[in-house]
Input
Amino acid sequence: MNKETLDNQRPHWEKSFSQKSDMFGGEPSASGRAAVALFKKERKTKILELGSGQGRDTIFFAQNGFKVHALDYSEIGLSAIRKKAEEGGFSDHIITKQHDVRDKLPFDDESFDGCYSHMLFCMALTTVELEFLCAEVRRVLKPGGLNVYTVRHTGDAHYGTGIHRGEDMYEVGGFIVHFFSREKVDHLAKGFQILNVDEFEEGGLPRRLFRVTMKKEENYNE
Output
């Protein structure tokens, strides 16, 4: 596993976002819609979004009345979110911050009702880095807070193809994907209760994903 290769994903994403203003389309993802429905049902109002990209789900959260803190390591993506928020009149509902999720999250303990990320966990992150990220998400969630994330899994057509970059990571078309097994989902759930692991498909091929819904355990001790 070459750290420099993994680190080079950042400029690759910046370049991709600069070339396509709506790389993944302008409509919210199916997982974003599902998360909004769940957060409304559970009366969660303050949400942390990790890997917000160009904001297709961020804007949808804001449209539905949520207060969203959107983090991404691409400033180009965050600029796009701020522009869309201003144009749509949602600037009061969205706070953006450039951040690398391999570093400590810049928030106090128990700051959020929920955390959402669409395919952020399956980026070029090692298992050790994912363990750290999950611990950080757990730290910033309130007791009983929800963590909803999606990842491409090992049943995906791209799994095992392209250039192997260590662990279950493969580079296809310039993008490194960390494919998840169900065992990895369980491994990363320390301090959480897994409520659901749903399988779904999205986009070309189609991509095959897990949508994982977890609740922070009320009395968990490190």
Notes: The mean pLDDT is 92. The two ends are 29 Å apart (CA to CA). The helical segments are 3-7, 9-19, 30-41, 56-63, 75-88, 127-140, 182-187.
